[in-house]
Amino acid sequence: MAPMDSLPKIDGVRPARLDDLGRIALVAAAGFYYSPVFHYQRPYYDAFPEDTIASYQAEYESVMLDPNSIVLVAEQVPDANETDKAYKALQRLCPSKPQTGSNGKVVVGVASISLPPNSKRSGVIQLKGTSTYHVQTEPRQQRDQCTKGGELYSEATAPAKAKYLTGQMRLTTLAVHPAYWQHGHGTRLTNWCIRLADLDQVPVGVSAAKMGVKVFAKAGFQEEVKVHIDGYELPDESRDSFGCGEEEPANVTPIELWIGVRRPLPRQKPWLWRMLSCFIKAENEKL
Q1: What is the C-alpha separation between 283 and 287, in angstroms, rounded?
Q2: Beta pairing class for 106-114 and 169-176
Q3: Which residues are in coiled coils (predicted)?
Q4: Which fold has domain 4-286?
Q5: How far apart are CA 180 and CA 78, in angstroms?
Q6: How many helices (H) and strands (E) does the chain have?
Q7: Angle at the Cα of 176 (from 214 to 170), degrees rounded to 5?
Q8: What pLDDT, on a 0 to 100 scale, did the predictor assign at position 250?
Q9: Which three-class secondary structure state does DSSP give residue 119?
Q10: Cα separation, 21 vs 199, whole angstroms
């Protein structure tokens, strides 16, 4: 087992708990709204924000209960006006005041990590064995999503992900509530992941929309490929049955996905070995 004290330590970042799930779902919806992938896969988000929340809550619960995955959260003191920064449909589901934890802070960012096969970290970072836990949500109807969009996205991205990301540690998701942008939370969550990869001396991969590329490139990820995903026309029957008005677009625009990989930095030598190496080098230069 990998001891907890061998994990990266970054201020404001910690492994998520199951009781964070409600807040995580809200943060994910608010943050991912600004990604073109969100609009590609969830064209009916405006009509069914409750389905979006339920979807993210179920997704992150599944990841947290997976021994080969990690969910991280970033925290800070809440902004009393954070609801104003969420998209309009989501605002209807936001509490009037964010509920803080015992530290006076709220979850403002979330990231998930997929561990490589046979990782020594498997099952030891987040508490498991919570089979009696049940998320209290409405049935996950996925009315905000379009099946065609999900299928096209998977078909287009699967070959590149298989080629460049299979067997790697992966930073699978990263989202920050827009009320807390420009506070460094995305960078800190990313840095936690890459420090873990450096500790374990493994590469880490990521697939990202354009808005995330700057953060990942700064963290040392190098581009492997860009994947183009064709746009599509929304089925008439789904628009009619969901009651979407004329303001809803009939077509979903194409998007592009960036895939990058960061190789681990070499482990630093212990200070005594570094001093000895310098001494040996100096003596050799005298010869």
Answers
A1: 7
A2: antiparallel
A3: none
A4: Aminopeptidase (3.40.630)
A5: 9
A6: 9, 9
A7: 65
A8: 81
A9: coil
A10: 28
126-139 average pLDDT score: 50
Say how far residue 103 (Cα) sits from the centre of its chain. Answer: 24
Q: What is the pLDDT of residues 208-246, one digit of tens each?
A: 999 999 999 999 999 999 999 999 999 876 554 555 544
Q: What long-range pairs does 214-218 form, CB within 8 A, spacing at least 24?
A: 215/174, 215/186, 215/187, 215/190, 216/171, 216/190, 216/258, 216/260, 216/262, 217/260, 218/187
Dist. CA 84–CA 207, nearest whole Å = 29
Give Cβ neighbours of residue 79 (< 8 Å, ≥ 6 apart).
85, 98, 179, 180
Domain boundaries in the chain? 4-286
The larger pLDDT score, comparing residue 134 to residue 182, is at: 182
Can you read off the two tokens belonging to residue 106?
A: 């709220």
Instruction: Check whether 6 has a pLDDT greater than 90.
Output: no
Residue 104, sorted as left (phi over 0), alpha (psi -120 to 50) or beta, turns out to be left
